[in-house]
Amino acid sequence: MDSRRNFLQKISASVLTLSISGNAIASAKDFFNQPYEGPVLRVAIMGLGSYGTRVADAMQACAKAKLVGVISGTPAKIKNWQSKYNIPASNCYNYENFDLIKDNSEIDAVYVITPNALHHDQVIRLAKAGKHVICEKPMALNAKEGQEMIDACKKANVKLLVGYRMHFEPKTLEVIRMRKEGELGKVMFFQGLCGFKIGDPTQWRLNKQLAGGGSLMDIGIYAINGARYMVGEEPVWVTAQEAKTNPEKFKEGVDETIQFQLGFPGGAVASCLSSYNISNLDRFFLTAEKGFAELLPSTGYGPIKGRTNKGELNYTHITHQTVQMEKMAGIILSGETALVPVDGEEGLKDLKIIDGIYLALKTGKKVNLKL
Ligand code: NAD
Question: Is-above-0.85 flag for pTM?
Answer without folding.
Answer: yes
